[in-house]
Amino acid sequence: MKTLIGLIKRFPILAAAMRRFIWYSPGEVRMESWRLGHLHRGRIVEGARQELAKPDTSPARAVLLRMVIHRQQKMETALETLKSKHRQQE
Question: Domain extents for the chain?
Answer without folding.
Answer: 2-89
